[in-house]
Amino acid sequence: MKRYQIVILPAILLLLAGCARSAVLSSPSVQVPEETETSSPSHTAPPAASDQVAVKKDRLPEGISEDFMAFIKSTYGTSVYDRLITSFESGSDGGGLWHELTGNSLLVLKDLYSGILNSPDTARSHNIWLKQSSEPNQVVLSFAGDISFADGYANMSAYYARGGIDSCILTNVRARMDSADIMMINNEFSYSRRGTPLPGKAFTFRAEPSMVQNLHSLSVDLVSLANNHVYDYGADALIDTLDTLSGAGIPYAGAGRNIEEAKEPVYFISGGLKISYVCATQIERSTRFTKEAGPDSPGVLRTDNPDLYLGAVETAKENSDFVVVFIHWGTEGTNYYGEDQQSLARQFIDHGAGLIIGCHPHVLQGIEYYKSVPVVYSLGNFWFNSRTIPTGLVEATVTPDGLKKLQFIPCIQENCSTDLVVSPDEKQKSFQYMEQLSSTITIDTEGFIHPLPE
């Protein structure tokens, strides 16, 4: 090779590496260290053989390659690499040490190594969304129940009369929603101007596509479409809903153009952790208006075939640090959960769920724990109609060690508005009410939920 070629080639490689590092750093929740003498930029392929670190294969845990460890050393430095190798020699697979040393879980590091986190667009092509956490080493997940922007009902009449969503879902509760790292609701309607109401169905919900902007006003990061109203105006309206949400940059789960999309988990990377969401519906249980998605037809993910819905949970568990199952189930107007809900909850937990959030009954239902995993059976209406009913948010704080705390935030839906309960006396009444609906938990004066000793 000529001398000028030898000089130019390293320069080109350094330029390309710098571009790769800039792409990674544009993803706010992926923790990559500043360059030092012992660290070099991340890359989307294994280092050249001459740069690889000599590691005995029998010292590496299953699923950890020599190339991956060379990437760890080049990205995070020799001291991080050495501590991990020492951990492996003691028989550990690294456990929480990955996150402690790098700010990312092993699964996030593997995604970083593969290159799928090089940009938000690349990540989204794998159904992964990047979200900055407000605090390092943890992510706060928040959940609300049923919401509808469908015209022809009292809540939307109030919406137009009062000048928009800010006058219906009030300041205090919006601020609380905004404070979460990832905010999720149940989207109980379609966004479309197409389709006709399903024959024989008493209540059908369809909203103007422009209403999707309300989700941004409410700091919503993710919606469930696995419910019994997203298909009210047929397949075309459902497809319009998918397109409307995608166009607004709002991920969805539990419905799709085919069954593969409907059962696909949605992933968020935040706080250096990879969180997954699986959504499914048990409703309707008698007359089936809402179609389950097929190999080539749009619809929702139902809980009829365990291979489908439990397979989705297993896939989420394999590819994430923490699995949320958001499930549409139960009996409308009933505050007490049933045995069918309990049976489903146990299946989800046995296959990897770390938290279950339910909706559909339009009223609050209780909370219980199974194998140390909380099941919130129903969050009720969040903003749905004119009834005066208690409702609430549930906030879950997840750390590298799993679910750290769970908190119920009492709210009230009244006169087509939703707001926080702020009176100390009324808050305590709300906590006592939730305890009455539950058999295996207590709620302290701040709303934190604790399982009773077994």
Automatic annotation (TrEMBL):
Comp. bias intervals (Low complexity): 38-50
Keywords: Signal
InterPro entries: Capsule_synth_CapA, CW_Biosynth-Accessory, Metallo-depent_PP-like
Region (Disordered): 31-54
Signal peptide from the UniProt entry: 1-22
Keyword Signal among record annotations: yes
Pfam family name, one: PGA_cap
Domain Capsule synthesis protein CapA: 140-386
Superkingdom of this protein's organism: Bacteria
Similarity comment: Belongs to the CapA family.
PANTHER family assigned: PGA BIOSYNTHESIS PROTEIN CAPA (PTHR33393:SF13), POLYGLUTAMINE SYNTHESIS ACCESSORY PROTEIN RV0574C-RELATED (PTHR33393)
Name used for this protein in its record: Poly-gamma-glutamate synthesis protein (Capsule biosynthesis protein)
Species, as recorded: Lacrimispora xylanisolvens
